[in-house]
Amino acid sequence: MRGLIITTVALCLSIAAARAQTQESAQPPASQQAPAAEASIHGYGDRDKTCAAWTDTCRSCERGDGDTVHCSNVGIACQPAAITCSRRIDPPKSEPPK
């Protein structure tokens, strides 16, 4: 009886280990996930040229001189939300035809 229990426990552990290994291989490593999230907050200003400042509720970015972008650091345990524009600039006005 004791041998049957030990065998059952060993079988359950090997199945659990195989499942965990399969789940880990299905997800990309965290190092590959982070740049995509970072690119979205840093690249938001490239997609919306009229936005001078934007936020995901964890970090705030704003357009500096020229094409430079300055972003704050993310806070501890912050859960980012959708990126929204918090300050707009007027688009360049074209001169009326003469």
Structural commentary:
The protein has 98 residues and is an alpha+beta fold. Helices cover 44% and strands 17% of the residues. The protein has two helices and four strands; from the N terminus they run ααββββ. Strands 3-2-1-4 form a four-stranded antiparallel β-sheet, covered by helices on one side. A hairpin with a 5-residue loop joins strand 2 and strand 3 (69-71). The longest helix has 25 residues, at 2-26. Mean pLDDT is 78; it is low at 30-37.
Class based on secondary structure composition and strand pairing? alpha+beta
First-last Cα distance: 99 Å
Q: Please compute the radius of gyration using only Cα atoms.
A: 25 Å
Figure out the total of helices.
Answer: 2
> Strand share of the residues?
15-25%
Instruction: Name the average pLDDT.
Output: 78
Largest sheet: 4 strands, antiparallel
Overall outline = rod-shaped
**Percent helix range:** 40-55%
Along the chain, the helix and strand elements come as HHEEEE
The number of distinct β-strands equals 4
Query: If strands are numbered along the chain, what order do they take across the biggest sheet?
Result: 3-2-1-4
